[in-house]
Amino acid sequence: MSTNAALKPAPRGEEHWTRNDDAELFLWRKAPESGAKAGTVLFVHGSSMASQPTFDLQVPGRPYSSAMDYFVDKGFETWTVDLRGYGRSDKRAGTEATIAQGAEDLAAATDYIIRETGAPAFHVYGISSGALRAATFTQQHPERVKRLALDAFVWTGEGSHTLDNRRKKLPDFKRGERRPIDKAFVYSIFNRDHPGTAEDKVIDAFADAITALDDSMPNGTYIDMCTNLPLIDPAKIPVPTLVMRGEYDGIAGFDDLIAFFARLPNSDKQFAVMPGISHASFQQKNYMLVYHILHGFFTQPEPIYRGD
Q1: Residues 118, 123, 129, CA angle at the centre, nearest 5°?
Q2: Which one of 53, 98, 251, 299 counts the least CB within 10 Å of its CB?
């Protein structure tokens, strides 16, 4: 890794706002000063943290802790959005924040970005329930997705130890709209599968950034993932797709993902196992490996020949 990466100032971010029906949505943009030549990336967060802590984390002494900064440095315009119920976006009472609503919020966010920038299509990355939201959005708006990356994804949920444990708390999730979170909860994300895959200083920074915006999270995605899977039909995802699985990730059953991958109709597809990684891959010790895989997929040339 270049030492210059640690010295380079972070690209300037811009806040933007749009609406989905009556819900206000916060968007965050970072882009190269010279203009985006590589395309536009849309990052989609998961169930237990808002967008900026996940994709624009700043950790002193850890170059490119911000995935957005990394991809800006590679020539991409980058966007992320707090889906309803999270971060700076609408958190009014009655907000379920289901997978389906998250996909609707992504449609509203891309409506706005297209109006602002004219971007014809997006490289979309989603992690955990964000991968489910991104896949749902892609089913509904395939013309807006150039390439799709699904990290820590679940299809039927078979073989998911995390979901097996989560179902034991399902009655509690159904009783309320939100569940409390704190720094100890954030640490549990990294310790539940394989402790040691992330540095404490990174987990601390991540936890501080998450809890600065939220002291609770909506239950909608947890309920969906415990009771309503499968939500995605792989046959309805026509775009080039990358399925990413951390070696130690307890939420993404390997055989479940392979079965999903086999049913993807576009032959331009990849399956990547990321060694030494559990959940929350951008916050892991091996995060640069994750960026490398993702960047390679987003910059892959289009095939010249596809056969008859």
Answers
A1: 120
A2: 299
Residues 208-242: b if buried by 16+ CB within 10 A, e if exposed? ebbbebbeebbbbbbbbbbeebebbebeebebbbb
304 in a structural domain: no
Tokens at residue 140, please?
């509904």
Structure tokens at 254: 């390997």
- Residues facing residue 81 across a β-bridge: 27
Report d(CA 140, CA 103) in Å as an integer.
Answer: 8
Total Cβ atoms within 10 A of residue 199: 15
The dihedral formed by the CA atoms of 124, 156, 273 and 136, expressed in degrees to the nearest 10: 0
Q: Is residue 193 part of a domain?
A: yes
- Could you tell me the residue range of the domain that residue 9 belongs to? 4-298
Q: Looking at the domain assignment, is residue 196 inside a domain? A: yes
pLDDT surpassing 80 at residue 308? no
3-state helix vs strand vs coil in the chain, percent to 5: 40, 20, 40
The DSSP output letter for 62 is S
Q: Residue 290 has which token pair? A: 């994750």
Single out the residue of 112, 153, 172 nearest to residue 251, CA to CA.
153
CA distance 114 to 102: 18
Q: Kindly state whether residue 128 falls inside one of the protein's structural domains.
A: yes
- What span, in angstroms and rounded, lies between the C-alpha atoms of 233 and 93? 31
Q: CATH number for the domain including 95?
A: 3.40.50.1820
Query: Mind listing the pLDDT tens digit for each residue in 289-301?
Result: 999 999 999 999 9
CA-nearest of 232, 66, 44 to 126 is 44
pTM of the model: 0.96
Q: How far apart are CA 297 and CA 149, in angstroms?
A: 8
On the 0-12 / 13-18 / 19+ scale of CB atoms within 10 A, 185 is: middle
> pLDDT of 264-298, one tens digit each?
999 999 999 999 999 999 999 999 999 999 999 99
